[in-house]
Amino acid sequence: QVGLQSPSPPASRPLRARHSMIPRAAKRGDGWGKEQRTSAGRRIVADLGLKGSEVTLREEPWAAVLAVGELGQRCDWSFAAADGDGGGAELLRCPATGLRFVSTKNRQQAKAEYLACEVRACEAMPSGRRFSDLPASLRLAARAMWRGVCDQGTDGPIPWLGLEDHWHSLSESRRGEFMGMGELCAGVVRRGLGEGAVHPPDALGAARLLAVIAVNAICITNEEFREIGLGLYLHASAFNHSEEPNCSQSFDGRDLVVRARTAVKKGEELTITYAELAESSRFRRAHLRVQYLFDPLEPGAGGMPAAGAVARRDGRLEEVLGRGAQGWEPLASGLAWSPEAGFVPAQGSGSAVASDTVLSWATELHELWREASHSGDDGRKLLAARKIWETACLGDAQGAKWQLGVGHALRLHVARAGMDLAIEAQSWAEAAAWARAVCKSEAEVYPNPWAVPACSLARLAKLELYLGNFEAACAAGTRALQTFGALGIDGSMGQEVRQMLAQAGAEGHGRTQAMAEQRRQNKAAAVAELADRPPEGRQDAVGIDFGMLD
To answer: Got the DSSP string for 48-67?
Structure first.
C-alpha cells in the first residue's frame, strides 16, 4: 500500500463480499454484531439479543458532503440548518469556498480534515469552475483522500481499502467511466494537497475510491427523511441489504444511527435496506443489480425468506381494481409503475396479463403526470394530480371502469406530490386531504414500524391542528409518536409532535367545555321559557329531553 495511490492488486484478485468489516472504532450499542464469513460472503450478526429500538451503531462519517441544494443552507461540518433545524445560529461563511459553518469550532474541525485542502483546491480551480459544481461522489472522494492525508500522511494506510469496490466485476465501459472521473478527482486532490505532497494520488487510486463510494456511500437525510447529503461510513458499510430489514437508519446531523427495528435474536444477521421499499420489486431489483451487482431474491442471495413479504407488498403496489357486479374488485393481474418506466404488467401473472385496454388507460395516466412533472409549472402539476385522483383513485367517477388500489405506487406518488404542492400553495385543507391519502397508502406498503409513515403522520397531525380538527390531530400525532418510540427516534420532530398533541388536547378540551357551556345555557333558556308560559300552555318540565335542544 503506497499512501493514497492505488494498491496495485494482482490481476486475479479474488472477489470479496459486498461489504467488509473494519474493526472497532465507532460507538456501538451493546448488541452490535460481529463479522462472520460464509460461503455467500460476509455478514454481521448480533452478539446479543436485541429489543426493538436498541442502538446497534452510531458512527461519524469518514467523509461527508452536502447536496447542492443544501450548500449555504446548512453547516458544512455538522449539517445543522440555519433555521433552527438542529442549529438555529447565523451561519459563518468561508470566503474562499463559500461553505458555511454554525461556529468557529465547527470550522476548525473541518479545517483539520479537509477545509484547508479544499481552500487551496478552490483557489487553483480553472476560471469559471467551482468545487461545489462537481458531482457529490467526486467531492466526497476528494474529502476522503484529504482526510486520509491530514490524519495519517501520504504514506499511511488506506482506510477504505477493506471496502468492496467490485472493480473486477465491472464492465470495461463502467471502469472507463470511473477512470475518467478518477483523473478529474486526482487532479483536484493534488491541487488541494499542494506541491509538497510526497505521494500524490493517481487516477487509478481515485477511480477505485469512486467505485467504493458507488456501492458503500449512504445518503444522509434530515428528520423528515429527505436527502441532504452523502457520506462514507466505514463501519456501517458492513450491513447487508434485506427486503425485510430488521434494522433502520436515521441521522443525528451527519452522524449515522442504526437501530434494531424489531426484536433480534442472538446470532441473527443485522440488515438494512439499500433501496426504496415502496416501489415494485422488479424496479428495486434492477437498481440493485446495476448499482451493487447483486439480486436479493436470487437463489443463494439470502433473500428468499422475505419472498413472501415482497410478493404481498408488490400486490399492494401494483393492484388495479375493476368495477364488477359486487363493486370494485382486484383484477387478476396488476400493473407495476415507476416514474422512469411507466406502467408495465405485473410479473408472474402468467396468462392473466392486464388487457391492452387497461394498460392503455393506465398509460394515459402516466403520460399526463410525466408531461406535467417535466413542465416545471407547479400549478399544472397540481391540476394533473387532481385529475389523476378524480379519474383513477376516487372510485366514484362517472363511467369509471378501473381505479388504482389504495397502495398503488402511482397513487402514493401522486398523493405525496399533491401534498407538497398544496402546502407550497398554502392550500391547507387540500394539503390535509392529500396527507390523509399519503398516510393511508403508506400504511399498506411499508413494514411496521417504519419511519417514513411516522413522518407523514406527523405532517398530517400538524395540518389537522392548523385546520382545527383537534381529534384527528391527536389521532395522527399519537400514531406517529408510537412509531417513533418503537424505532427509538426522539429528535426535534418527536418533540414537535408532543407539543402539537398538548396544544390539540388543550384546544379540544376548551372546545368541549365551550360546547358543554352552550348546552347548559340552552337548557337554562328552555327552562326559563317554560317557566314564563301561562300554566294552561305549559307542559311539566319533568321528563323533557334537553338533549333535543343541543
So the answer is: S-B-TT-EEEEE--SEEEE-
Cβ atoms of residues 81 and 305 within 8 Å: no
Q: What is the pLDDT of residues 443-457, one digit of tens each?
A: 999 999 999 999 999
User: What is the distance between the alpha carbons of residues 253 and 220, in angstroms, rounded to a whole number?
Assistant: 9
Residue 195 burial class via C-beta count within 10 angstroms: exposed 0-12, middle 13-18, buried 19 and up: exposed
Among residues 459, 448, 455, 438, the alpha carbon closest in space to that of 491 is found at 455
**What residues have CB less than 8 Å from 520, skipping those under 6 apart?**
none
Query: What would the pLDDT profile of 356-386 be if each residue is shown by its tens digit?
Result: 899 999 999 999 999 999 988 999 999 999 9
Of 79, 443, 103, 52, which Cα lies nearest the Cα of 261? Answer: 52
What is each CA distance from 260 to 26, 277, 319, in whole angstroms? Answer: 17, 17, 31
Question: Mean pLDDT over all residues of the chain?
Answer: 85
Q: Which residues contact 209 (CB under 8 A, 6 or more apart)?
A: 141, 144, 145, 160, 165, 182, 185
d(CA 113, CA 362): 52
Strands 247-252 and 327-330: what pairing? unpaired
Q: How big is the chain, counted in residues?
A: 550
Nearest to 456 by CA among 499, 408, 423: 423
As a whole number of angstroms, the distance between CA 408 and CA 278 comes to: 9
For residue 327, what is the DSSP state?
E
HSE of 394, CA atoms in CB hemisphere, 13 A: 14
- Whether 15 contacts 169, CB under 8 Å: yes
Query: Phi and psi (nearest 5°) for 74?
Result: -135, 160
User: What is the pTM assigned to this prediction?
Assistant: 0.83
pLDDT digits (tens, 9 = 90+) for 52-100: 999 999 999 999 999 999 999 999 999 999 865 444 557 899 999 999 9
